[in-house]
Specification:
binds nickel (II) ion, alpha+beta, about 20% helix, 3 helices, 5-stranded antiparallel β-sheet, two-stranded parallel ribbon, Peptide Deformylase, globular
Amino acid sequence: MILPIVAYGDPVLKRKCGPIEKGHTGLGQLIENMYETMYNANGVGLAAPQIGESIRLFIVDASALADEEENQELLDFRKVFINAEMLEEEGEDWKFNEGCLSIPEIREEIDRNPFIRIKYYDKEFNLHEDRFSGIQARIIQHEYDHIEGTLFVDHLNPLKRRLLKRKLTDISKGKIEVDYKMKFPLVKKRTA
Ligand code: NI
């Protein structure tokens, strides 16, 4: 089932998410719905708060980026992260043009470290501790931010953010063309 994606301005996106218990009711179905929702919107990552659930869950699938980025490793990069905990981020900052399904039509160059070490559970609740680099790390960092209540625009300097303010308010009000289902915090009902 395709779920509406929560738009910028909804308080759920600013909240730090809580841990998930093993045996969480409906978790498998929720993950399946999140994949369907993400693919429908042509995203490469989606975090639970983006569909209104304040729990430490995010999914990634960067296979669609493999050709564009000339990185065949991305073909297998499909993963579920439960109760993730970032252990280390290191290396010299690099810029990458980020976007977010909750903030359509805005893309900005964001600085982040290129190497990470992260601990997480997969959907069978097996514990993993892995290292990622480059675009894989980037996607994880973006999604990990979501479960910590941070958005990519929060990384911009105050001037850049001020320049985007109007556009961001328009997104919250639903004054935006978007070809997937969204839930806008400043409108009661969407007239499609
Ligand atoms: Ni995002």
